[in-house]
From TrEMBL:
An annotated Gene Ontology molecular function: nucleic acid binding
Domain of life: Bacteria
Organism name: Desulfobaculum bizertense DSM 18034
Name of protein: Phosphoesterase RecJ domain-containing protein
Family annotation (InterPro entries): DDH_dom, DHH_sf, DHHA1_dom, Oligoribo/pAp-PDE_c-di-AMP_PDE
Pfam families noted in UniProt: DHH, DHHA1
Residue ranges of every copy of the DDH domain listed in the record: 18-155
Boundaries of every DHHA1 domain copy: 233-318
Gene3D superfamilies attached to this UniProt entry: 3.10.310.30, inorganic pyrophosphatase (n-terminal core) (3.90.1640.10)
């Protein structure tokens, strides 16, 4: 039976030129899946370019690349454009969204609610990560999950599963990870490269952010916030804020964690995480964002304080009756 997955497999085999794009400000799944697919296509002898509006974050600069990662779109459109880990076109950046053509496009994603904006759409919310989906394609195309390819797929999976600790970790996820390790991945060296990337400025920022952490609704919701002044004072970047939301989720009794970062006086970047049954995707979606049940995000055209008040008001509706 023909499915989007089998159709994409045939296109990867039969096509000649590809552009791979993932959401701006890429995390390990966005960049890992992009690089993994580029490795697959390079192994198949294809012409490939990886595009990301934000480029490669410093903490992932060690990743082995089979081709350039560009932050400007090429003048000549390739035969196929493949969008990864992007629940909607806007996540790919303004330039990409404005020039996008549905014809000759592929959308590979695992976000529930993806509007299937491409000509061919493979959306699997049961997958732990897009990297896992790319790893499955590689196996079906008989491309070994070794060296840079295996490392990129593993990066994507550990990012979106919290090092295999979240509820989206499935037996298939673990089997794929095991096959990569069996193929030669040094897990200890990999984790050292991924995790030992802190700077002193990040440590100082984290200390200041922890001082602003708060609990709400009898300890069920935790918030943490970063202002532009905090970034300036510590010499930090937005990349240094990435793990704050996961830190406060570890507080005993917390069901949902919210981090807020001031991008401009009237624009706030929000990340939401959940432990257990709280659906942070529903909270995010109500305000125009998206994501997964246990991990979601949104940008709000509000000051940090106004965004925080709105999020707490919205989150209270999703707590069990009588607990808000």
């Amino acid at each position: 039976m023909t499915t989007p997955r089998t159709t994409i497999k045939d296109i990867l085999s039969g096509g000649s030129s590809f552009l791979i794009a993932a959401h701006e400000n890429p995390d390990g799944d966005a960049l890992g899946s992009s690089v993994a697919l580029a490795h697959v296509l390079t192994e198949l002898g294809k012409d490939v370019i990886v595009y990301n509006a934000s480029g490669i974050p410093d903490y992932l600069s060690w990743l082995s690349l089979p081709c350039p990662v560009v932050h400007e779109l090429p003048e000549m459109r390739p035969e196929w454009v493949i969008c990864l880990d992007s629940g909607d076109l806007d996540r790919l950046g303004d330039e990409f969204a404005e020039s996008f053509s549905r014809r000759g496009s592929i959308n590979i994603d695992h976000h529930l609610g993806n509007p299937e904006y491409a000509e061919i759409n493979w959306v699997d919310p049961s997958a732990s990560s897009v990297g896992e989906m790319i790893g499955q394609l590689a196996q079906e195309l008989d491309v070994p999950l070794v060296d840079g390819l295996g490392e990129a797929v593993y990066l994507a999976m550990v990012t979106d599963t919290g090092h295999f600790s979240y509820g989206n970790t499935s037996p298939d996820t673990m089997r794929l990870a095991a096959s990569i390790i069996e193929s030669g991945l040094d897990v200890g060296a990999f984790n050292a490269r991924l995790q030992n990337q802190w700077t002193l400025s990040r440590l100082h920022l984290t200390s200041k952010a922890y001082e602003r952490a708060e609990l709400h609704f009898a300890g069920q919701i935790a918030t943490i916030e970063v202002t532009q002044a905090m970034l300036d004072e510590t010499g930090s970047t937005r990349e240094d804020c990435g793990d704050l939301v996961n830190s406060i989720r570890r507080i005993r009794g917390v069901k949902g964690a919210i981090s807020l970062r001031e991008e401009r006086p009237s624009l706030t970047k929000v990340s939401l995480r959940a432990a257990g049954e709280l659906d942070v995707r529903a909270i995010s979606a109500e305000l125009g964002g998206g994501g997964h049940k246990n991990a979601a995000g949104i940008k709000l055209n509000l000051s940090l304080e106004d965004a925080k008040a709105l999020l707490l008001e919205t989150a209270s509706k999703y707590l069990p009756d009588g607990e808000a």
